[in-house]
Design brief:
It is built from five helices and two strands, in the order E-H-H-E-H-H-H. Strands 1-2 form a two-stranded antiparallel ribbon. The longest helix has 22 residues. The protein has 126 residues and is mainly α.
């Protein structure tokens, strides 16, 4: 996975709470992403699933300040997340890989992995 993503702080100053554990932050991102995209996936008609999943995924990244070089690059990285999970990697290991290969912190890497699972490979959501 190449470094395609950066975290862009919100333009408006918002208070940030630092969690004591990067792992806790990682799980929080995963849980939030799955919850947000799970609700969106349930309300979208099946005929538009691919387009809706892509727009929901990209919108979710943008809403958390995760920027990407192009939508194609973001989608390729999301599919790589799914490929790694298909190969038997644990979700936390994949999120750590995302963190190591990008400028994302634990929360945003976890959010990216969770959003990828919800949009591209829901078979891995549990």
């Amino acid at each position: 996975m190449t470094s395609l993503f950066t975290y862009a702080p919100a333009a408006v100053a918002t208070p940030q709470v630092r969690l004591s554990s990067p792992l806790r932050s990682l799980f929080a991102g995963l849980i939030l992403a799955v919850a947000l995209l799970g609700v969106a996936a349930e309300t979208a008609p099946a005929a538009h699933a691919d387009a809706d999943n892509t727009s929901n995924f990209l919108g979710a990244l943008t809403s958390r300040g995760i920027t990407y070089g192009s939508s194609q690059a973001a989608m390729a990285a999301a599919h790589e997340v799914c490929d790694e999970l298909d190969q038997g990697k644990q979700v936390t290991d994949v999120a750590n890989d995302v963190m190591a290969q990008s400028n994302l912190d634990g929360y945003h890497a976890g959010f990216f992995v969770g959003a990828s699972i919800a949009a591209m490979c829901p078979r891995h959501s549990q």
